[in-house]
Structure formats: C-alpha cells, structure tokens
Amino acid sequence: MSKQEEMYNLVTEYRNSGLSAKAFSKEKGISSSTFCYWVRKNKEEDQPGGFVEVTTGSNSSARELELIYPNGVRLQMSSPDLALIAGLVKLY
Questions:
Q1: Exposed / middle / buried, residue 26 (Cβ in 10 Å: 0-12, 13-18, 19+)
Q2: 77 has which bridge partners?
Q3: DSSP category for residue 23
Q4: Which of 4, 15, 72, 88: CA 20 to 30 A from 46?
Q5: What is the DSSP letter of 75?
Q6: Strands 64-68 and 74-78, how do they pair?
Q7: What is the longest distance spanned by two Cα atoms in the chain?
Q8: How far is the C-alpha of 71 from the C-alpha of 6, rounded, in Å?
Q9: Would you call 69 helix, strand, or coil by DSSP?
C-alpha cells in the first residue's frame, strides 16, 4: 500500500470517527500538520475542477444552457451569450 493510500484510508477513518483532526492525529501518532495536509489533499481530489467539455444534445437548434457550479448552484439560461457565460464562470 502506498503512503497516499495509507493516508487516505486514515482520512476516511477520521471522517467517520467524530473526532477533531487534532485528536485523531494524536491518537494515531501522526503530527497534526502532516495529517491536516493529507485531509486537504484528499478534499481537493474529491472536488471537480477545471473545465468540462460542452456537447450539444440531439436537438442542436435549442439554445438552452445549464451551468452547474461545484457547490451545487444551477443556473439555467435560454439564448445564452458567451460574454455572460464567461462572466458567470469567473464568479466561481
């Protein structure tokens, strides 16, 4: 098992434990700062980031767009313009 796999298993165990990160890391004999690094790294990998491919549906004449932010907020637009979409993407 790699170091990353080992630490991610501990992060999963920590999330299910109900303990604070400080208490959990102390219990496992890991420095608090090292353990918090792995918690952050695991969280970053769980969250989608970057751009996604946009494809048109079977009805390409429809001019509707739905923008979904990683936090779950959904924006639905009809006849979207690219400047507006770019501004909305930059908000996140």
A1: middle
A2: 65
A3: H
A4: 88
A5: E
A6: antiparallel
A7: 60
A8: 28
A9: coil
Residue with tokens 């102390």: 26
- Which residue has tokens 């208490």? 23
Q: How many helices (H) and strands (E) does the chain have?
A: 4, 2
Q: How many CB atoms lie within 10 A of CB 4?
A: 12
CA distance 32 to 25: 6
* Integer Cα distance of 31 and 40 in angstroms: 15
Determine the pLDDT at residue 54.
Answer: 62
Dihedral over alpha carbons 27, 33, 38, 44 (to 10 degrees):
130
pLDDT in tens, 17-51: 999 999 999 999 999 999 999 999 888 777 666 66
Of 92, 46, 45, 84, the C-alpha closest to 68 is: 92
Using CA atoms, how far apart are residues 36 and 59, in angstroms rounded to an integer? 48
